[in-house]
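Re: weekly structure request thread

Next one in the queue (69 aa):
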Amino acid sequence: MITNKKIKYIIGKYKELFEALENYDKTRELPSQRKRIDITLSVRTLDKLAKMKEKTGKSISAIIEERIK
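Done, posted below.
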């Protein structure tokens, strides 16, 4: 039998997962989903990103996501 103590433990342990599922119910989007967007950047910024891409071997979108996190 599941007790209130076990329920609280499970909810506490997997809090982020429950929040993601709750958000999915509201928005139909998961946090791990990706969306394509159009943005305007300066040529200088694009050059820096291209150099970082060559240096690290990561995609430009991965570099941007890492910097924002």
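The longest helix spans residues 43-56. The radius of gyration is 19 Å.
Next request, please.
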